[in-house]
Batch of 2 targets.
Target 1
Amino acid sequence: MQEKKTDHFRRRLLPACAAMALAFAVPATALAQAWPTRPVKILVGFPPGGVADIMARSMAPLMSETLGQPVVVESRAGANGNVAADAVAKAPADGYTLAMTSTGIESVNPYLFSRMPFDPAKDLAPVAAAGRIQLFLTARPGLPASDVESFVRYAKAHPGKLSFGSAGSGSTPHLVGELFKQSAGIYAVHVPYRGAAPALQDLLASQIDFFFDPGISFANVRAGKLKMLAVASGQRSPLFPEVPTLAERGYKNMDYDTWFGLFAPAATPPEVRQRLNEAANKALANEGLRSRFREVGGEATPMTAEAFKGIARKEAVVFGQLIKDRDIQAD
């Protein structure tokens, strides 16, 4: 008798469990299909007119077409991307607030700042890569050097006399400059600026001697106002095919592009993050967007969120140690 009751209970319980499982599965599917129902905001962690800003504003209208909702871009610059990233880390985890920033938010800032207002590894989730920017070793016209070899010889003959600018302490152009100094065995004084644009202006005015340009000096190079000596990348730039890479000149560990991408609050549902990744990758396949990226020395890089995360992890090994060894601190 007891066995019959048990069998009867099981026959009633199994369909009920199946129904409950289906009920829990439906919300995730429904969320992926229904989202978004209102505008999506992208907070750019760097100044207006910079590469990150250009990337975000190029991607926004194309992502909007795919998502069916406006994608608006807002500047939230400061603290090497921390201001925008902190706002996103503390935003509701619903996919409506994203950060456009560099991989340095995870590979540099935790080592650079003595205190972080959030934990990038725990509070943010990568959504999609946007693109990578090559860095160009660019010098003032009056510097008596026409190539990397003569530049290094001059720097060694005048230790401490040269200065180089960057978009700020801990920015990729700064760290690549430090890596180059280390690799070439030269010494130059670092001058941090609040953005690459003011660094370029001082280079044109010969207030500094060189900098690793993130793609804003092209017009001045073509006009003969500046010298482009090399590319700190694994390949030559199609915009300046005659300019060699540092690796070609014997500096084998100088392949460091600046990577930018979209980040969301860590608890954002996976289904929403996947929709954002698909919308971003579709935008990055657009030839008009790819052409715009190339104008500033960039390359659109559609990929999975996991692959983008891997780039930050790889950078952290090199940059984290460099920041420690050189005692680099935030401005």
Target 2
Amino acid sequence: MKHEAYIRGLGYYAPEKILTNADLEKIVETSDEWITSRTGIKERHIAAPGEAVSDMTAEAARRALADAGMDADELTHIFLYTVTPDYYTPSAACLVEEKLGIKGKVVQDVNAACSGYIYGLEMARAVLALHPEAKVLVAAAEVLTSRTNWADRRTCVLFGDAAAAAIISAGDPRPGDGRIVDVLLASDGSLGHLLTIKGGGSGHPYKLGDTVDEDYFLFMNGREVFKHAVRNMTTVCEELVAKNGLDIDAIDLFIPHQANLRIMEAVAKKLALPEEKVVSTIARFGNTSASTVGIALAETKAEGRLSPGCRVLFGVFGGGFTWGSALVQF
């Protein structure tokens, strides 16, 4: 028996501190015009000293729980998608559990890079297929500025910090709930070297006394990532729409990964989606990795754009490489 999965509540958190393009002009050789014209980003949020992924996730989770009308102790599972956890161990998901004041849940950190939120929707669907009584928190959060090389003007202008959360369960839908219609996911590990953070992992360990070098920070071959992102996001979105017997005109809103405005525009153009259907938050948040589409969805709901019957298509792409698409109907 199939148990439908519904998004019951949404929330996000972005740190108070904002770093504008004008601020970056004082840090690295760049300009507001250069950043805006190439990325669409005007500002990004930066975690405060000592503000970790678990702190941001806990706050996003509280907001999602409030939106769902649920108490934290009703949760059965916490899945946190991140590449910048507080520590190697304990997991950031365990720390979120503690900060929510609960115990005894199924908790796990998962790394799908920028595709994490959509991978999380599929994880929730899988859990609900086995445990229809479950109530799942799917969260995506990054403090990417902790792994940003502020001397590399190609990457330091792109990233910000934030967390997004969704509460997902089965059962009868309520007004405003979003049914997860379908999800398609994919990956290609042979291209992982094009977008990577090596330093500190078991494949690139540090010894006591070693200095932190450039490998500790995010590296990206921007030109190659751009090509693969556009191609794979477009293809997986087309496949998902066709798989569900729809054509692209049936899509009311498109929420792409907010990596770069040029990528977003290129994917929308290839999908023949008009600008008014494309949700964009990149100007205010920059690329916050896996949390970008969760932030965009929560804001879209808060703005009252998710009318009954609204079909929302997601397209994501991230390091690994990983990519995917989801279709949610409200």
